[in-house]
Amino acid sequence: MDIGLSAWRQLPQCGPAPEERCKHACCVFKGYMYLFGGRRQNGLKDFWRYSVVQNKWEKLDQAEGTAPEELEEPSLVAHEGVLYVFGGMMDSAYTQGKTPLWMYDIGASRWTHWHKLSSTDTEKQAPINRREHSAVVFEAKMYIYGGYVDIKGPSQEFWSFTFELEEWRPVLSSSAEISPGPRYSHSAIVYRTGMYLFGGLVGLMEQSDFWRWDFDSNTWSRIKARCGPQQLVGHSAVVYQDSMLIFGGGRNHKSADNSLWKFQLTTRSWA
Question: What does the entry list under GO cellular component (predicted)?
Fold first, then answer.
């Protein structure tokens, strides 16, 4: 999409490219968009990157190390030359004991699967597998919120992962009574010192509520703004300049929409 012209433009593709899919993960780092996994008829575990300048896809299938298995609805973020893939495993007896975090070193073309140093180290906490959660980066940490945990259902767990130490820690709010609560299929972005979270599912109820997490004070606050989207699940969101752009999703998982919404973060109003 050309944001300056507010117009969509389909890019012609030549050469190898990912097959059609849904429930995949994407992120951008230094002129490339990286794509992992998703679902077509079955789960996928292929890994691609797209050059914005060259308009060309490249399959990254020669990496060393332990790559992720087939993943559906994982998260993917980038920080200082490393990609972090979390969640999305299809639960089974095999996956129960695994922490679903993989790290891909772009320069070295190498995968590493994160694991606890010792199974008896009680201080080494880590989140269990989930999907349809949100993942953002603030300063030197990745923050994971919510998601759907098989058997248990929607989660309201809030975790941070310190990149340098490769350690997980639960994020505690100084005001536990106010929070978005257990939810999944929502969106989240970071702007300045806040994480903005919109919509999703709480139980079986679609949501249109809007929240901000303050990284300085460790508190949640609810944003009240008129004329915004109705209930949305399964949508996506990015930051562009001083705005949060929300695309797609639907009132539920069975009704998709192609609407594009813009929330001005400086004035806290929908445009």
Answer: Golgi apparatus
